[in-house]
């Protein structure tokens, strides 16, 4: 694999993430009183952002280059931030709380994925700090 592959993956992830994140900010309005709130759309956009980052991270790992660690760390932190936002939304939004009792398996999987992303970033950061300082 080449540096071009690495840059292509990062460029694709950045463009896709920014596009969806901007759409969420403009059209969902969760936490913004100037925009009509759409928590269900926000939920699905956040989950899609997690999938984008998961695929980008997998592709970077496949490259096997040592140069990808900083990008993986950045993706992991970004995923943890989105996962936290998603979990806050599910736990605090009235619409989603009403829907929660009728969640299908797919939504449960999405919530589990969000929780795993939060755990993954802490494991990644911990393993990197142990690698630098084994004591």
What does this structure look like?
This protein is an all-alpha fold. The protein has helices at residues 3-27, 39-63, 69-92, 94-100, 105-132. 81% of the residues lie in helices and 0% in strands. Helix 1 (3-27) runs antiparallel to helix 2, helix 2 packs antiparallel against helix 3 and helix 3 (69-92) runs antiparallel to helix 5 (105-132). The N and C termini lie far apart (34 Å). The chain contains five helices and no strands. The chain has one domain (3-132). The chain is globular, with a radius of gyration of 17 Å.
SSE layout and pairings?
Blueprint: H1 3-27, H2 39-63, H3 69-92, H4 94-100, H5 105-132
Query: Counting H and I runs of at least 4 residues, what is the number of helices?
Result: 5
Global Rg? 17 Å
Q: Which bin fits the share of residues in helices?
A: over 70%
Mean pLDDT: 78
* Beta strands, count: 0
Q: What spatial form do the alpha-carbon principal axes imply? A: globular
Beginning-to-end CA distance, first to last residue: 34 Å
What is the count of structural domains? 1
Determine the strand fraction and express it as a percent band. Answer: under 5%
Main beta sheet strand tally, sense and closure = none
Low-confidence stretches: 130-135
Order of helices and strands: HHHHH
Structural class: mainly alpha
